[in-house]
Amino acid sequence: MERIDKILSNLGHGTRKEVKALLKKGLVEIDGVIASDSATKVDPDKAVIKVSGEEINYRKYIYLIMNKPAGVVSATVDKHDETVIDLIDHEYHAFDPFPIGRLDKDTVGLLLITNDGELNHKLIAPKNHVNKVYYAEINKFVDAGNVNTFKKGVVIDDGYKCMPAILDIINADENGSEVLITIQEGKFHQVKRMFESIDKKVVFLRRVSFGPLKLDEDLLEGQCRELSEQEISLLKEI
Ligand code: URA
Question: What predicted TM-score, i.e. pTM, was given to this entire model?
Fold first, then answer.
């Protein structure tokens, strides 16, 4: 059981003071009865709560999948740049959402956003071997030797030996290559640094899948949607 003023203010219906005013005005209903006392205790999972006649959609956690555009940073706040949180609907801001892992400012594609700290830890821990697949455009010819090097674990600039990665060549010639690369870690600039270590440059990077989830074809860059119950369960099973 939780206080009604806390529930409503956590869901973005205003500060505790503003919510108190809503209650005083008789605008809040719990199971059909007007509640005017802010200290009223309620089980938000069971009760039907209405504010100004509209039923509220109570949940503790939110889970969003975004097709991140280029030019925004994967952070909650930033002094200079727009963040992925700036792009999501304001109704979600009261949940204090944050991105799961990071994509570089110029990387596009699948980014999960939540306020579920436990799931976040699980999905970013390398020991859980969650596959992240990226589509990458490379400035040079990528060959079978490179596939082998990545499979063994490439050593990047700071001496770190990456976990084995799968490189699938979509097409390659002297002008450049298109590849899919699957990694299980999320070190800073990891894919770019892996290619730098074989003297090549990533010129475009899009994350196309994260564990069991794939990037929606119909999600335009900058858009996001809530995950379905089934998608949330798939992530929690990892
Ligand atoms: N690897 C990178 O280099 N950048 C990203 O944004 C993600 C993985």
Answer: 0.89
